[in-house]
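As a warm-up, study this chain.
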Amino acid sequence: MGRKSALARIAHLIAEMATRCAQIGMLNDGVFRLQMTQEQIADAVGLTPVPVNRSIKTMQDTRLIQICRASVKILDWSALVAVAEFDPDYLQLPDVCADPRRAARDQLC
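Now compare it with the structure written out below.
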């Protein structure tokens, strides 16, 4: 994670949180709650709040995600995964789907 860009680090965190939320039924239509401040996100991914803010803005401007208060909506899962270089296999969760929105919608995972 330490060698990734700020954008990739934050995209990875969001993809991981979405995957984990899908596993416990807390992802609805690509939306999940992320009750973390930008300072807390910065600490979690080893950055300062300034690049976190810029990266979140970039992800919103490029329509990867949409954030409203403490809710994150994934708009383009495939692009988010590509930016993050995210592979859910490392989480070792049972029956992880490639797209957590599908998992929540179809109850496959």
